[in-house]
Design brief:
Isoleucyl-tRNA Synthetase, domain 2, 885 residues, seven-stranded mixed sheet, globular, alpha/beta
Length: 885
């Protein structure tokens, strides 16, 4: 890139990524270094990445690049997730547009289309990650449906079935009528909904009286098998042992008692529909009630719905109310604000449905996973997520792991015969046939008489073993790779998959390996728009991240995201946050151009300003390095970046480079000064590299000729060194003086080229006067014992020192506008008010008698200091009004 030109991120990013890939800097193999491994949360192959993915992967890349420069053997494993429900729904929708259906195509042909879709989107996702600068080990790329991972999933299923953890049983499960599959509890989104509460009258058998029941779902009366009230509810004692008749159905059901019923909801009587409510099913099991399933897979009513057979559940609700009205059994209808469950993937209203499914027992395997967080073996950042984790883990239910889909890991179960328990669990058809022949005692059983379960496993059943399966730790539990890389370091993730993934990975680590899968969990915040909505594709409230990268550059996008990100906290995103990153890139590039423009001479005569600037910045760098590392290790990545931002923008560019820069258009600079400037810049680039890898690597390779092994990406992190804090304090005062003078120039429209004179009343050494003279463009600094007279000046204070800024002797007066005088008057008023508050206490005898002596001394000093400030401001104001126009 031509350094005389403006920085062009597009050309730099493409070139530098190719350079890293060519030199194989991202690859990792076990060696004698300390390993540092991260498994990427695999994005779904349902589409392109959004800004949340970009944040997550930027954080991981920052951590990996830092660790690589620290000398660790870094291994960042990229991958994608097959996302059974979401991907199948996408492909079904695409095929529907072409007039094709999943059933028409058949399983094999349908899966061909899904694989084609997955391959396309895997490539899109990986190209996006490369464009962002992610330094993943692409040789280790994973896909949750790859043969290696699929074999691991199958083995885990078989092993856990053999150990008694996996079983098949009838349970009420969450059912997605659109995708026509079960869902786990964590895949159900609950949304506030204003519905209706219907009060229905059930006639008591043998009487003319009725029992009134309140329900939000009158269409489910076809599945009612009991009416229930609380055992302590005296209102219904007279109904014990009686029966009622269901309207329309005209079937009699018993009245029972159970403590689950809330006497304060509705009428205190609950209708029990066991096939379509988990709590009703629990009551039914306890009281041995009949269970009646009234729904088809698509949430239309089956033959149990009588004349509503084949009709959609919501249409039935409307129609059945009309019929119940005609029967005069609706006592009342009122509005009710309640929550309804929606499928996370299709957003259809979830049904609870009794179904024969495969489950994994969770209670026992959750115990070591709970203990690992309690004892700090695995740490959460921030740790407030521990409370949420414990709550979920302590209430954990068996995991419904089967899904009624075609896309996914097919359940390794094979059936034969016609009995419910006529099945075997095996990794393939041949082994299944062998097991089936033995179990059935039929040696003549053939391939045609045995068939595999058509269902697939929940997507998360492959993801929960990723820290093990990516290193082939399931089939070969003690292989060199798993022994070297496991446990991994961090998992960087959103809190929304704490239960889907994080908790389950911890459980699988202890269950299958006997140890934790990772050491730390970093929770990112959720990115929101300025109406506080989560940024998502469905709301269409986001900008395509690639568009942002094309507009601002990858480094700028990374920096914008990292400055806004604070561990575990949500934040608002606007495209313009990337503008700060682009401006910062330009600032760094211009600093590089300035240094490159200088002509190095052997001149050994070095100005005091340059010597002091070098001495100060060296100490300043090591002071910042210490804080930077401290913040970084505490995961305060935003704070570490901000202190680096200030070091570059202000300390390096505004003070150091300006302090050593040749004056009067001269381009010559002493060799010693130049070498120090380059060394400091190189150290800065090292700190910058994890956050902004492209521009830092580009400048690193342009500022000096380097061999490939000397690339910034594999350079060593700066070592901490001693720094003199006193030098920093004294120089900071000099920078404050410079800033005050620059502000006075700006506020009063005084050219920065105009030479001024500074009078000072100071008690301490003037070591950095040469820097002040140069950077504030002063003619001279004159030490005085009192305020100068008969000359116009601006006065300002720094601690106990006072300064008077005057024009050179050729100028007579400054120009000051009315607003500046008003500001001084406002300051005087502020300090007068403060003085009044201080004196109110000091002149109160009770206060003086009750407070400690040291506090009284502080208050009296505060009174004295405030009086002094008022006096000086009044003098200054009087002077201004007298001398300035």
């Amino acid at each position: 890139m031509d350094i005389s030109m403006k920085y062009d991120p597009k050309s730099v990013e493409k070139k530098r990524y190719h350079y890293w890939m060519k030199e194989n800097y991202f690859s990792s193999y076990p060696d004698d270094r300390i390993p540092y491994a991260i498994v990427m949360p695999p994005p779904n192959v349902t589409g392109v990445l959004h800004i949340g993915h970009m944040l997550n992967n930027t954080i991981q890349d920052v951590l990996i690049r830092y660790a690589r420069m620290k000398g660790y053997n870094t291994c960042w494993i990229p991958g994608t997730d097959h996302a059974s429900i979401a991907t199948e729904a996408k492909v079904v929708h695409q095929l529907k547009k072409r007039g094709l259906s999943k059933i028409f195509l058949g399983r094999e042909k349908f899966l061909y289309y899904v694989m084609k879709w997955s391959k396309k989107h895997k490539n899109i996702i990986f190209n996006q990650l490369k464009k962002l600068g992610c330094s993943c080990d692409w040789n280790r790329t994973q896909f949750t449906m790859s043969p290696k991972l699929s074999q691991s999933v199958t083995k885990v299923f078989i092993d856990l079935y053999d150990q008694g953890y996996i079983y098949r049983g009838y349970h009420v499960v969450n059912w997605d009528p659109e995708a026509q599959t079960t869902l786990s509890n964590e895949e159900v989104l609950y949304k506030e909904h204003i519905g209706k509460l219907y009060y229905l009258k059930y006639k008591i058998k043998g009487e003319e009286n009725y029992v009134t029941v309140a329900t939000t779902r009158p269409e489910t009366i076809f599945g009612d098998t009991a009416i229930c009230f609380h055992p302590d509810d005296k209102r219904y004692y007279h109904l014990k042992g009686k029966y009622v008749k269901i309207p329309i159905v005209n079937r009699y059901i018993p009245i029972i008692q159970d403590s689950y019923v809330d006497p304060n909801f509705g009428t205190g009587c609950l209708k029990i529909t066991p096939a379509h409510d988990i709590h009703d099913k629990n009551i039914a099991d306890k009281h041995k009630l009949e269970i009646i399933d009234i729904f088809n897979k698509n949430a239309t009513l089956n033959e149990k719905g009588l004349h509503y057979k084949g009709m959609d559940r919501f249409k039935v609700r409307k129609k059945i109310i009309e019929e119940l009205n005609e029967l005069e059994v609706i006592k009342n209808i009122e509005k009710l604000n309640h929550k309804i469950g929606l499928s996370e993937r299709t957003l259809s209203v979830v049904e609870q449905r009794l179904s024969l499914q495969w489950f994994l027992k969770m209670k026992k395997i959750s115990i070591p996973a709970i203990e690992a967080i309690k004892n700090g073996d695995i740490q959460f950042y921030p740790n407030n997520f521990c409370k949420t984790y414990f709550k979920w883990m302590n209430q954990i239910h068996d995991w419904n792991i089967s899904r009624q889909l075609w896309w996914g890991h097919r359940i390794p179960v094979y059936y034969y015969g016609n009995k419910i328990d006529n099945f075997v669990v095996a990794e393939n058809l041949e082994k299944a046939l062998e097991k089936a022949r033995y179990k059935s005692k039929n040696p003549y059983l053939t391939h045609n008489e045995i068939w595999q379960d058509s269902d697939v496993l929940d997507t998360w059943f492959s993801s929960w073993i990723l820290p093990l399966s990516v290193f082939d730790g399931i089939h070969h539990p003690n292989n060199p790779e798993i022994s070297y890389y496991y446990p991994t370091e961090e998992i960087v993730t959103g809190s929304d998959i704490l239960f889907f993934w994080i908790a389950r990975m911890i459980m699988s680590g202890f269950l299958l390996k006997g140890s934790k899968p990772f050491k730390r969990v970093y929770f990112t915040g959720i990115i929101r728009d300025y109406e506080n909505n989560k940024i998502s594709k469905s709301l269409n409230n986001y900008t395509n991240p690639i568009d942002l990268i094309n507009k601002y550059g990858a480094d700028a996008v990374r920096m914008g995201l990292m400055l806004k990100n604070s561990v575990g906290k949500d934040f608002h995103f606007e495209d313009k946050i990337c503008l700060q990153g682009r401006n910062f890139s330009n600032k760094i590039w211009n600093a590089f151009r300035l240094i490159q423009s200088w002509k190095v001479t052997k001149n050994k005569c070095i100005s005091n300003s340059s010597l002091f600037a070098i001495k100060w910045f060296k100490n300043r760098f090591y002071y910042v390095l210490n804080i930077f590392d401290k913040y970084f290790l505490e995961y305060k990545l935003d704070e570490s970046l901000m202190i680096l931002y200030k070091l570059i923008w202000y300390d390096f560019c505004s003070f150091f480079l300006e302090g050593i820069k040749p004056i009067n258009g001269n381009k010559c600079i002493p060799e010693l000064v130049y070498l120090n400037a380059v060394e400091f810049f190189e150290n800065i680039l090292k700190l910058l590299h994890p956050y902004m890898p492209f521009i830092s690597e580009e400048i690193w390779n342009l500022i000096k000729k380097r061999k490939p092994k000397e690339a910034l990406i594999v350079s060593s992190w700066p070592e901490k060194k001693y720094y003199d804090y006193d030098i920093l304090v004294s120089f900071e005062k000099a920078t404050k003086i410079i800033s005050k003078i620059r502000n006075i120039r700006n506020q009063n429209h005084i050219s920065h080229k105009k030479s001024l004179v500074l009078f000072s009343i100071r008690k301490k050494e003037k070591e950095y006067d040469s820097i002040i003279l140069k950077l504030a463009n002063l003619e001279k600094i004159i030490s005085v014992s009192k305020k100068p007279e008969n000359i116009p000046f601006f006065s300002f204070f720094l601690d106990t020192d006072q300064f008077f800024l005057s024009l050179d002797s050729k100028d007579k007066k400054f120009h000051m506008n009315h607003m500046d005088i008003v500001k001084i008057e406002n300051k005087i008023q502020y300090f007068c008010n403060l003085l009044s508050i201080i004196r109110k206490n000091l002149y109160n005898d009770k206060y003086v008698a009750s407070v400690p002596e040291n506090l009284l001394i502080k208050e009296r000093k505060k009174e004295s200091d405030t009086l002094n400030k008022i006096m000086k401001l009044k003098e200054y104001l009087e002077y201004l009004k007298k001398h300035l126009i």
